[in-house]
Amino acid sequence: MLDSDVLDLGDGPVVVFSHGTLLDRTMFDPQIAALAGAYRTVAYTSRAGTSRYGTERSLDDLVADCLDVVDGINRFVLVGMSVGGFMAIELALKHPERLAGAGAGVHHGRRVHAGGA
Asked: What is the maximum span of the chain, computed from C-alpha positions, in angstroms?
């Protein structure tokens, strides 16, 4: 992605954040603030958060975009939410050698209730 909005802060092991549909990189501002003192944090606004690149996209497109953002970084921890989580899983399956770890928060359509029946 040539003109993606990328925030790259801090030094140390790299943690990359990928947001959900209709959101942008700022959804991870609290996590970046908490980690930037000890980690290099990278968050970017993907094409899932904008119609600027059209509405057609595949997980392969999103994986390629993420790899473009981390060009020059050998290994990183990837954290994704919603479509960013699905992309993180896809990247882990296709490029496991690039990841030092991954975390994905995805919604599968089931409603979960906390506490009680």
From this structure: 50
Whole-prediction pTM value? 0.83
What's the CA gap between 14 and 74, in Å, rounded?
9
β-strand partners of 14: 40
Using DSSP's 3-state secondary structure scheme, residue 61 falls into helix
Cβ pair 39, 10 in contact under 8 A: yes
CA dist 101 and 38 (Å) reads 16
Task: Name the helix (H) or strand (E) containing 88.
Answer: helix 83-94
* pLDDT tens string 72-82: 999 999 999 98
What digits encode the pLDDT tens for the residues 34-75?
A: 998 999 999 999 886 555 555 667 889 999 999 999 999 999
Direct distance between the N- and C-terminal alpha carbons of the chain, in angstroms, rounded to an integer: 46
